[in-house]
Amino acid sequence: MKLYYSDVLSPRKACAVAKYLQLPIDYVFLRLDRGEHRTSEYLALNPNGKVPTLVDGERNLWEADAIMCHLAGRADSQLWPRDAGSQIEILRWFSWNQQHFTRHAGELYFEHIIKARFSLGAPDAAAVTEAQKEFRRYAAVLDAHLEGRRWLVDERLSVADFAVAIALPYAERAQIPLNGFPHVLAWHDRLCDLESWREPFPAAV
Ligand SMILES: N[C@@H](CCC(=O)N[C@@H](CS)C(=O)NCC(=O)O)C(=O)O
Prior knowledge:
4 strands, Glutathione S-transferase Yfyf (Class Pi), Chain A, domain 2, 9 helices, binds glutathione, Glutaredoxin, 2 domains, alpha+beta
């Protein structure tokens, strides 16, 4: 398997799961600042011109959530449980995360980290205020769900945890407001016990 990635948010999910599962993978780092994700060769694999992309035999797979599930399946891991009830729960969290939680956390990551890194100008104060407000709204939902639970689904670690928490390692630098959400913080601390979560990228990066 070949995993095309860069050291940014969405590929971080795929890299963290690949490392957690200790799968044999050829990692291909793409320099976004050089447009290496926009070459015709890469667009043939992923017409969106985004990272990550996984190539497994004849299959080209894009979208980090799908890649995590595929990797878990290849490793026969319960990170992507086999029973339909658990899978539906995970899909629910994937959808919620993309539409709400990491949508707003990702906006803060963009405003505070990506803009500085790629010289895209100063953070937009109005966008930051709005994203923080919306983030808090959904963080409250997550916090209530996590009260009395260790993990999001079925009381065991799953790809849902890797997906929903993905922006939280950047919380301080991205000014993602986690104060007042103790169960979210405790859950993220549990993830931080995993080396693959703290250090998801291959050593060269
Ligand atoms: N929904 C996609 C999002 C992929 C995505 O937006 N990747 C960003 C990095 S986090 C990217 O490739 N940005 C480069 C660009 O848009 O030029 C996924 O989850 O894989």
